[in-house]
Structures are given as C-alpha cells and as structure tokens.
Amino acid sequence: HAKERGKGRFEFYSEDLAREHEEQSLIEFSLRVAMATNQLRLHYQPRVNVADGYIEGAEALLRWTHPELGEVPPKKFIRVAEETGLIFDLGIWVFRRACEQLREWQRAGIDFGNISVNFSARQLLMRDLIDRISTILVETGADPHWLEVEVTETSMLYDVALTKKVIAALKRLGMRIAIDDFGTGFSSLSHLQQLEVDALKVDQSFVRDLLHDTGDAAITRAVISLGRGIGLHVIAEGVENRAQLAFLRECGCDAYQGYLFSPAVPAETFAGMLREQMSLGRRLSAPSGARG
Ligand code: C2E
Ligand code: MG
Ligand code: MG
Ligand code: MG
C-alpha cells in the first residue's frame, strides 16, 4: 500500500478513508435492501434481577444477516444509519417489531417483564417521533407500560432542552426511560433529576475490569449508589462472570445483563426461558403504573 510505495502518511490515511467511505456506501445500500427483504430481526437479551436471579425483562437488539457478508454487527451499521438518516425508518421498524412481539407474548400469556428498545440520538430529534410512536402503539395494541426506551447518555446531551421535552412526551405515552451507557458522557448530576428517567444502565466499560481496576470499581459503586439514591432502577451491562455479579450485588445493583446469564437470543428462545421461569412459579410483577 501507500506506505510501502514510500509515499507520505497523508496518503496512507486517505486511502484508509476512501476504503472506509466505500464500505459505508456499501452498508448504506445493503441496509436499504435489508429493510425491504426481511434480513433484519430483533434478538432479546434477558435482564436479570440481581437479588433473586430471575428474568425481569429484556433488551431488544437489532440483528442483520446479510446473504453474503453474514452477520453484520450493529456497531458497523447503526452509525452508518445515523449518518445517512436511515435510522429514522430503521428505528420505526425496530419499535414496531418490538410492539408486535410484545403483543404476541401478551396474547400467549407469557410473562415477559418489560422490553427495552434502543433509540439513538438522531431518532430523538425526529420531528414526528411522538406521533409515529403513538400510532404504532395503537396499531399494534401493545401496552406501553411494558416498554422502556433506552437513550444513551451522550445523545441526551446534544440538546438538553429538546431531549427533556421528547422524554416527557414518551413518558406521557406510558413508557419508561432508561439512560444507556451511563458514565461515558459528562452529564451533570442535576440533568439526571430534571430528565425524569426511570432507570440507569452502568456502561459495560466500567463493569468489564471492575475486579482489577480500582477506578472502575469505584465508579461502578458510585453510579449504583447515585442512581439508587435518586430512586432509579440501576442495571449493570456486560456482566460476564460470578465475581462481577457478587460485586454488583454487594453494591446494591438492581439488575444485570451479560453473557454470564445469556447473550441476546431469538424471540422464541427468550420465550422458552420465560416459560421455564413461569413453570417454576415465578410471576413477574408489573412495573409501577402497569395495567398488567
Ligand atoms: P447497547 O444498547 O449498550 O447494547 C449492549 C451491547 O452489549 C449489545 O451489543 C450486547 O450484545 C452487548 N453485550 C451484552 N452482554 C455482554 C457481555 O457480557 N459482554 C460483552 N462484551 N458484550 C455484551 P450489540 O447487540 O452488538 O449492540 C451494540 C450497540 O448497537 C448497542 O449498545 C446499541 O447502542 C446499538 N443498537 C443495537 N440495536 C439497536 C437498535 O435497535 N436501535 C439502535 N438505535 N441502536 C441499536
Ligand atoms: Mg442499550
Ligand atoms: Mg449500553
Ligand atoms: Mg454500548
């Protein structure tokens, strides 16, 4: 490549950029096809109660199987979708699919707890977001009290005033709000109270090394205590081993997600886990305000 041909670093980087640009265009095009041809689906990662080990809900995560490229990870295509504006349609597709799934489980009498759906920064700024969301709720018949919207801490900071309005509107529709990847942005603590969120997800970058990194352990402990102190449901992400879980339990963390319990799985697999849990006599209590 450029460097070996003795050219400067600039060209070396611009070739990288060109390649990246090409890959982005390919992803953008393929993503449009994917949306039109059923290549997308939602998987569900169980969210587990730290105190008793039972599933209390799940996070819906987008999965894309490309006919030639195979599995394309969200990290690769969500950013492209955001940059090209495709995220608007994609986000609506995800929300509708989650509502349909929720309705199916409700009809089948499955106790699924609450389902959270990720919204990215640009989705929040979509002008007709609230109209479209309420239309989908009506059309699918999904009960909004079983839905939670995850918004990353960083995306809340773009336009705090507008974010506040959107969050209030989503809450008026009956949904819960969680702050995702908490600890990676720089939100002032007063925002937390102003935004009237319900849950807070400790970013997995702190959980990953908390057993070996005293800084990460201190941050995790502080975030859990802060969240619980202002009455939020605190969830730890990326829990991969029992020692991490023990630490979180000791800190008073409410719930966790991670490979220790399960990665995101197809809807039928998640439903199987719930049925098994129900057969053990476990009933999920409704989140506050839920009609059940
Ligand atoms: P996120 O919302 O923070 O989701 C958590 C990510 O951590 C997921 O990656 C999940 O599979 C992964 N994860 C869960 N447990 C573990 C663990 O124990 N160890 C490790 N190393 N990872 C774990 P995934 O599914 O690849 O999604 C990545 C990101 O893409 C998500 O981060 C979210 O920001 C975005 N994303 C995924 N689906 C959607 C969607 O439907 N809409 C939007 N807007 N964004 C989405
Ligand atoms: Mg999330
Ligand atoms: Mg996260
Ligand atoms: Mg993340």
Describe the structure.
Mean pLDDT is 89; it is low at 286-292. This protein starts with 8 loop residues before the first helix and ends in a 13-residue tail after the last helix. Helices cover 49% and strands 19% of the residues. The protein has helices at residues 9-36, 74-84, 87-107, 121-124, 129-140, 153-156, 160-172, 189-194, 204-208, 214-229, 242-251, 267-279, and strands spanning 40-49, 55-66, 70-72, 114-119, 147-152, 176-182, 199-202, 233-236, 255-256, 265-266. It has an 8-stranded mixed barrel with strand order 1-2-4-5-6-7-8-9, surrounded by 5 helices. Helix 1 (9-36) crosses helix 2 (74-84) and helix 3 packs parallel to helix 5. The protein has 12 helices and 10 strands. It is an alpha/beta fold. Bound molecules: ligand C2E and magnesium ion (3 copies).
Provide the list of bound ligands, each named once: ligand C2E, magnesium ion
Proportion in β-strands? 15-25%
| Average residue-wise pLDDT | 89
Rg (C-alpha, Å)? 20 Å
Q: Uncertain runs with pLDDT below 50, 5 residues or more?
A: 286-292
Protein name: EAL domain-containing protein
Domain EAL: 24-278
